[in-house]
Design goal:
Helix content: over 70%
Shape: globular
Number of domains: 1
Radius of gyration: 20 Å
Number of strands: 0
Distance between the termini: 23 Å
Structural class: mainly alpha
Keywords: Membrane, Transmembrane, Transmembrane helix
Order of helices and strands: HHHHHHHH
Length: 227
């Protein structure tokens, strides 16, 4: 069995990225590392490029492997993640439309309507994926299928990176404690490098699913068949 077909492949990949990021933090001076991973710099730009390449990769996948609706929903979700990475969710009134105060504050109605129109297709795409694939994915994870474990790792990393992103801010808000620059460098480097991994995991999951479906087709092929 190829390493990429292992159910633990994505988990080991995520661990490797985290360890490499930690090693980089140990040996790289704080200021250059913070500059490397801050917004608009190299790591974030590489993440945006990775999302673009991943979306192109999905567009090129044959419809026999991924249905058109599923492909459209996944691409919509990835476009939303790309926009968030590029801070486009703050494009209206310089305020994140993902925060409650955007909707409950005193913004003009036209801004809220624009935000609603932007978010609606994203919500529909995510609901489609949740309704149609949540339970099959959970069953596939229990069956230790590699593509499903990679999808679960992808979702887990989204939650983890969001937690890392908010961690020091929450501590500061609760206690008034300002984190030292070296700790900010550790936090930001872990977050940004793991976020860079996210689009790669989509490619890995798609590749694993393709290999899984081809292997099932080979097993179910009648004896003597050449197709």
């Amino acid at each position: 069995m190829s390493p990429v077909d292992s159910p633990r492949f994505a988990l080991w990949l995520a661990l490797a990225v985290a360890v490499c990021s930690f090693i980089l933090w140990c040996f790289m001076p704080t200021d250059p590392l913070v500059h490397l991973v801050e917004e608009g710099q190299l790591v974030e730009n590489l993440t945006l490029i990775a999302y673009a390449v991943t979306i192109l990769y999905l567009l090129l996948q044959p419809a026999v492997m991924i249905t058109l609706r599923t492909k459209a929903a996944v691409i919509m979700a990835l476009l939303a993640m790309t926009a968030r990475e590029a801070d486009l969710h703050k494009a209206i009134a310089d305020m994140s439309m993902l925060k409650l105060r955007f909707w409950t504050g005193g913004l003009p109605g036209i801004d809220k309507l624009t935000g609603l129109l932007v978010l609606m297709p994203i919500v529909v795409a995510c609901l489609y994926l949740l309704i149609h694939y949540a339970m099959p994915t959970i069953r596939a994870v229990k069956a230790c299928r590699a593509y499903a474990v990679t999808i679960a790792t992808f979702i887990g990393l989204i939650a983890l990176t969001n937690g890392i992103d908010r961690s020091l801010g929450i501590i500061k808000e609760w206690t008034g404690w300002h984190a030292p620059e070296w700790l900010v460098a550790l936090q930001t480097s872990q977050e940004e490098f793991l976020e860079l991994l996210l689009p790669l995991l989509v490619v890995v999951a798609t590749f694993q699913y393709r290999r899984y479906t081809l292997s099932r087709h080979a097993v179910n092929r009648p004896a003597g068949s050449v197709l």
